[in-house]
């Protein structure tokens, strides 16, 4: 049976926003865990993840309050923000899935040259030095530098994971994009429904 009643629309909207709340707390927790265990030292990367988590949490909070109170203004702003997020997220997800190996390599090299802390994390965790070649004058935190073994370049190593990561991120992004357009549709229907507990002549 299609969910078309006031209570059903309200419950679905609340459940969707509770899901967004859990995802936002998960993002913030993963960033804190990465910093706490020393897996990530890049404040830029951690800052972006935490900012996305906080933004998602605020959106979910607005949607949850608007759904519980059937607040027209909050629901309207929630619907508009969710639609804009859908457009951006859907575009980014499609771009992640459409990148070929050459474009992935170019993207990785740009990131490598612009984030020193993330570069150090990669070299330390994957035991490699340099992107395509290693300059002995550069700093490398990999353990292979201290030993007699020759250090491998990082490009082939991270290139093997880049495609899988991009496909995973693109797939997750597409999944949540469809939940967002579902949220927009539910919000639109819910805003135009009457609350049966209110005055029957009042259209909220």
From TrEMBL:
The chain crosses the membrane at residues 12-40, 46-68, 75-100, 168-188. Pfam families: Tetraspanin (PF00335). Disulfide bonds join 129-144. Keywords: Disulfide bond, Membrane, Transmembrane, Transmembrane helix. One of its GO terms (cellular component) is plasma membrane. One of its GO terms (molecular function) is calcium channel regulator activity. The keyword Ligase does not apply. This is Tetraspanin-13.
């Amino acid at each position: 049976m299609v969910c078309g009643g006031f209570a059903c629309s309200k419950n679905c909207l609340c459940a969707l926003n509770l899901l967004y709340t859990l995802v936002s707390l998960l993002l913030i927790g993963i960033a804190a865990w990465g910093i706490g265990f020393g897996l990530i030292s890049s404040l830029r990367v951690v800052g972006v993840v935490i900012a996305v988590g906080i933004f998602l949490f605020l959106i979910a909070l607005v949607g949850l309050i608007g759904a519980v109170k059937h607040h027209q203004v909050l629901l309207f702003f929630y619907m508009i923000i969710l639609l804009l997020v859908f457009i951006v997220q859907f575009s980014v997800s499609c771009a992640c899935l459409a990148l070929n190996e050459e474009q992935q390599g170019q993207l990785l090299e740009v990131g490598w040259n612009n984030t020193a802390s993330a570069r150090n994390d990669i070299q330390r965790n994957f035991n490699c030095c340099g992107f395509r070649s290693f300059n002995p004058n550069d700093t490398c935190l990999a353990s292979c530098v201290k030993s007699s073994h020759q250090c491998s370049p990082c490009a082939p190593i991270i290139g093997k994971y880049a495609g899988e990561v991009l496909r995973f991120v693109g797939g997750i992004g597409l999944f949540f994009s469809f939940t967002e357009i579902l949220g927009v549709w539910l919000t639109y229907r819910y805003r135009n429904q009457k609350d049966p507990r209110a005055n029957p002549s009042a259209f909220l």
